Known about the structure:
Elements: E1 9-13, H1 21-28, E2 34-37, H2 45-55, E3 62-65, E4 78-84, H3 95-104, E5 113-120, H4 126-131, H5 139-152, E6 157-161, H6 169-176, E7 183-187, H7 193-200, E8 205-208, H8 211-214, H9 216-227
Parallel strand pairs: 1-2, 1-8, 2-3, 3-4, 4-5, 5-6, 6-7, 7-8
Bound molecules: SN-glycerol-1-phosphate (1GP).
SN-glycerol-1-phosphate binds next to strand 8.
Amino acid sequence: xxxxxxxxxxxxxxxxxxxxxxxxxxxxxxxxxxxxxxxxxxxxxxxxxxxxxxxxxxxxxxxxxxxxxxxxxxxxxxxxxxxxxxxxxxxxxxxxxxxxxxxxxxxxxxxxxxxxxxxxxxxxxxxxxxxxxxxxxxxxxxxxxxxxxxxxxxxxxxxxxxxxxxxxxxxxxxxxxxxxxxxxxxxxxxxxxxxxxxxxxxxxxxxxxxxxxxxxxxxxxxxxxxxxxxxx
Length: 232
Ligand code: 1GP
């Protein structure tokens, strides 16, 4: 299994969003610990393969966060498989996973698969819409989800997903307190070094996504901010 235990910073690249070669090079050579390839809408086999091939020119580890069955491309270092813990739509909890295992059965390299307990916290995000995510109403509730992931299900990763909006530190902190050996990823709405630093003080790994496409210099500045920050 890929060793993500020391990752502090990752960039998440969306196969459905164009990125110029020079910009991609700067992102991959930025000193980030890994590139996560993933998105919610418009992710296809072809655009995932294209992005993976481009990222593969650089030495940085590259993992696929699996979002649909048609876009599982061989050749990544690892495959992160989200399980949305607060999904309100029962058809997205395990049905896609079962269908994938039925289809690909013996081809699945299990040693490369890592399950992520996903907590979808921004009700306005695409992932919240697709999964009909139940709203998180308090740090105590978030912490109970984190315990469900780490103690009950023993998932190796807990991902606090605020995609598109900067999260509430109290929610992230409450989840972090429940980690008990699991690894916490935080992602959502980071657009500046100070926001990156704020979440890096709490989370094991900070994920930076959208700002890559809106302001790549701001995105790049989050790497150093995270690397110079210790967890509190
Ligand atoms: C999205 O958690 C990541 O899955 C990062 O979020 O795109 O808002 O940075 P942003």
